[in-house]
């Protein structure tokens, strides 16, 4: 699918260990990853999953215990940060408080020995790019959080890095500003054509902005794919659980060739795509709340259930069900196409329909 | 009067009352003595110390000119200026060397894990537990001809004759640096401790090597500490009294010793007062220039 794309960053079997002895922490455990040129690539995971460590290894602030990292054809491993053609936007922005906005943006260019004229014109260009024209004489302390964020972006982009690393840059902003900056970042990425490597723990941010997402947990990359692959076809329980809401069902493979499974609650399902588990093996299935359907009790039901609560959300309604047979909870979200009229209320027996393409078999 | 106004007035009175002890102390032991010194410097010396209440500018004239005993003609003399120059240069050298030694030391402590920092700071302050006089005597034992340094160097056969260190400017400088180094380390540590080391990372990320990060980011941000430390070392070094006497042998006069001499055996209080005031103005001028330069560096125009 993406074979024709050129590789920007390649990490191979990278391991990073912090501490030693009993306090040893494997922040990254044998991680390999390929990030393409001109790609908005996101490392997504909960705090402590190693995503920031991977970013810091690419930036050069940390050195890996094992493995190597390439940028284009150049080995990065071993190079100090100031010799790497990558720039970072820090979570805290890390703007130099003793310099003006203009001096902050000019800093990297100055260090590279660029001429004064070039620096001046680049600073202007960058300030315009982030919509802060005319602010070069202000100091960082005189700017709002959102403006500081833009200056941090301009300072990093001014150097025209081959790769821009962004370490949770939006987490300090309030919701409205964050939404605005998400669109802004996406625009900057397509306008500059620079590869963005974006670290976040916010799944919505990852899904809306990225070309590809790598989901990480406990120092490992669990799944890499574009946002819809990650959302629609999670391969592991952690991925399915971390991104969006998911219902889990336990089942047994009845016939692998016919792709038939028997659910623990009774009822059989046929899947749309092949899976790797053998006949007789137990598997976990994931079903997104919006892909399941409810109906009045009938013969075609996959499972029988009882409505326990109904939560109205405006655009849609969420039904919390209890599955007959196992008593497990199950959530179904339905769009409110017919106004506020509720189809079911608490206590109603319902039929739960699981379309064959709504069911995802997890690997573990 | 509204209740708010009354409360404000009470608050103001409480503030003044709280300030009173400090103000009284500064007035009684700072401003009043300074005023006395100022008056004394314009009087005639008494024969057995003290002053005669007659106006005279002789004390200031004496600083630059020598009065001929027989015909009262004035000839320009540099002997006192030399003392000032020697003290001033020694104080500057002491300050610069303290900075060069103290800054890395403070930096190392500031980059230690927080739990270890207090131990290191504690070690820095240990010399203060002993009286300055005793510490200076200890220094004397180290640098004298039969001292530890010479004994060691002769023992391993590097030299045959002891290197004469005691009673030289070198020994005085060494003593001054040793005495005042903590005053440099502590304020610099205080500002480096507040330094956000992510700024250092940002500097590296923006293609600055270690030297440039130090010069463009760490030093400007530590400037308040560097200024405070330099002042705390420079002023006592300039007026130092014990160290020049013990380690310099009193052969080469420093300002502090010279002033002490005027109030002591020379019995020329007006001249001592004038010398003290000249010293004070020198310090004020030097500091004004220094602080102004330092704040320019901080503004990033280095």
Protein architecture, described:
The complex is a heterodimer of chains A (364) and B (302). Chain A is α+β, with helices and mostly antiparallel strands and 364 residues long. Helix content of chain A is 23%, strand content 34%. Chain A contains eight helices and 20 strands. Chain A has helices at 51-59, 101-111, 116-129, 145-157, 175-192, 203-209, 227-232, 237-242, and strands spanning 7-18, 25-36, 40-44, 66-71, 74-75, 86-89, 163-167, 195-200, 212-217, 220-225, 247-255, 260-263, 268-270, 282-287, 293-295, 303-312, 316-323, 329-335, 349-353, 359-361. In chain A, the strands form four sheets. A six-stranded mixed beta sheet of chain A has the order 6-7-8-3-9-10, with helices on both faces. In chain A, strand 16 and strand 17 form a beta hairpin. The relative contact order of chain A is 0.11. Chain B has 302 residues and is mainly α. Chain B is 72% helix and 5% strand. Chain B has twelve helices and four strands, in the order αββαββαααααααααα. A two-stranded antiparallel sheet of chain B has the order 1-2. A two-stranded antiparallel sheet of chain B has the order 3-4. In chain B, a hairpin with a 6-residue loop joins strand 3 and strand 4. In chain B, helix 3 (79-110) runs parallel beside helix 7 (169-193), helix 7 (169-193) packs across helix 9 (210-238) and helix 9 runs antiparallel to helix 12.
List the helices and strands and how they pair.
The complex is a heterodimer of chains A (364) and B (302).
Chain A: E1 7-18, E2 25-36, E3 40-44, H1 51-59, E4 66-71, E5 74-75, E6 86-89, H2 101-111, H3 116-129, H4 145-157, E7 163-167, H5 175-192, E8 195-200, H6 203-209, E9 212-217, E10 220-225, H7 227-232, H8 237-242, E11 247-255, E12 260-263, E13 268-270, E14 282-287, E15 293-295, E16 303-312, E17 316-323, E18 329-335, E19 349-353, E20 359-361
Parallel strand pairs in A: 3-8, 3-9, 6-7, 7-8
Antiparallel strand pairs in A: 1-2, 1-4, 4-5, 9-10, 11-12, 11-14, 12-13, 14-20, 15-19, 16-17, 16-19, 17-18
Helix pairs in contact in A: 2-3, 2-4, 3-4
Chain B: H1 3-40, E1 43-45, E2 51-55, H2 58-64, E3 65-67, E4 74-76, H3 79-110, H4 114-125, H5 132-143, H6 148-155, H7 169-193, H8 197-205, H9 210-238, H10 242-248, H11 255-263, H12 269-298
Antiparallel strand pairs in B: 1-2, 3-4
Helix pairs in contact in B: 1-12, 2-12, 3-7, 3-9, 5-10, 7-9, 7-10, 8-9, 9-12, 11-12
